[in-house]
Design brief:
The complex is a heterodimer. By secondary structure, chain A is an alpha+beta fold. Chain A contains four helices and twelve strands, in the order H-E-E-E-E-E-H-E-E-E-E-E-E-H-E-H. Chain A has a ten-stranded antiparallel β-sheet, with helices on one face. In chain A, strand 9 and strand 10 form a beta hairpin. The longest helix of chain A is centred in the N-terminal third of the chain and has 41 residues. The radius of gyration of chain A is 22 Å and the shape is globular. Chain B has one domain. Chain B contains eleven helices and three strands. In chain B, strands 2-3 form a two-stranded antiparallel sheet. In chain B, helix 1 crosses helix 6, helix 3 crosses helix 8 and helix 6 runs antiparallel to helix 11. The radius of gyration of chain B is 21 Å and the shape is elongated. The mean pLDDT of chain B is 89. The chains are: A alpha+beta, B mainly alpha. Chains A and B meet through strand 2, strand 5, strand 11 and helix 3 of A and helix 2, strand 1, strand 2, strand 3 and helix 8 of B. Strand 5 of chain A pairs antiparallel with strand 1 of chain B, so a sheet runs across the interface.
Chain lengths: 240, 282
Amino acid sequence: MKFLTQKWLQRGFGLLMLFALNTAHAQQDAKVLIRQLNQRMQVIQDYTASVQMHFDIPGVKMRDMQGKVFFKQPGKFKIKAKGIFFLPKQNPMQDVNALLMDTASYTTVISGYETIDGHDCAVVNVIPLKTDNELILGKFWIDVKDPLIYKSQMTTKNNGTLETSSIFGAYKKYGLPDALLIKVEVNKIKVPKMMSVDLNKKSAPKSDKNLKEPGYIQIKFIGYKINSRFPDTVFTDDAQ
Amino acid sequence: MSSFGAILKNELYKTIRRPRSYIGIGVISFICVMLQSAFYQDGKEILSFVTQQFESTFQIQGEVLNGNLICFIVLQTLIVQMPLLVALVTGDLVSGEIAQGTIRFLLTRPASRTQIIIAKWIAGLFYTLILLLVLGFFALFVSKWIFGDGDLMALNSEGLTVIRADDIQWRWGLAFVIAFLSLGVVAGLANLLSAIMDNSITPIVSVMAIIIVFTIIGMFDLPSFDLVKPFLFTTHMISWKSLFEDPVPMQDILFSCGVLVVHIIVFLLASIWIFNKKDMKA
């Protein structure tokens, strides 16, 4: 009986060690992928590009618009366009870069492998170490052969979950996408009939107040100019 | 000058000379300036009531508070008041003269009764046009001068529609044409009631009462009211707002315009018929 218990304990310990080793290996792999990703990002000090934005947000009708994007390391980002447009509060183009660069602020682990648009990707979970961080969990689908983020999912404390899908083209070697599709969870807007003065329209049927619907913003990047050393004033200047 | 031309000139002159004609112009100017001042001071806070539903998820980029938005808000606010201001002048055009006894003097002139009532109707439309021009000047031009141009974030019961600044001028133009047709219906109704009644207050109050009742019916989503709504001219008076949807429901707008034009014609023909039949007592 004593012999049997000892044998089971040995097996249990063996399994635990295997799990620990596997996790350590997964962490190591994730770190390598992130490091390779960061090396690619570090080449770019700044970039500008023309952007075409398409909006598909529940309760909002807005035509496509064009603008210009400005980015500077580590996380300065601005889209300048003539008119009104919506961007997600948790901006993936700004926040992902800043987050991944600060390698001491999070821990990573590979939770699995998936194929995204024909690319074998590792699903890297990024867990911030600080509890006061707005981000709770970041999941990044990173190509294992050519480290690029093809898909990301960021779960935040206050702004729900935000998903992005990237399409890479001519600027793949810099890690810059040709197109980015952002999916956001949106509370359906409700405007009282009295407030909108739509007296000849029927009120929308009542639905679950907390029901969230997916909203999409598609951004196409055209003609990147990398490391052109533009002034910082573009981020503070309000002119469109 | 023909007898009709002379009578029309006389009616236009009387409309311009009457002090009450300036009440409407004063009220519109005052409301516009008041709203512009309020939005200049606290516009961002006022707007946050609308945008807060989005602000948990999105950052709204660009200048939302601009001249186009202020004009949209002013027009929306004045939907209820403008018909009352039109009725204040047009509801008195015939009945006021009957009450004062001057109608008998007017009828001694060579113009026919039909020409007289048409001249009064045109004078009413002229006043309506002046009111709208004042509104357009303050609501659109002054607002753009103060707040600048930009995309319009129009609020409707289905959510928000963002209209690009370069796609908005034609919408304002058509919106003011529809507003003219809408107020033309009110002027025509006031003219008709003015031809029926013999004192100057009752037609004005009656027009106001009709508009208030019709508007209240339009507000409620009750099945019994839904049957009546398409036949109420107040339902079609706010069709200008549909111009700020994307895509623009042109068929619905044209139908509403058709309904308003039919109302104008029916009210005018009824006024002519009643005025021709009317026994003008001293």
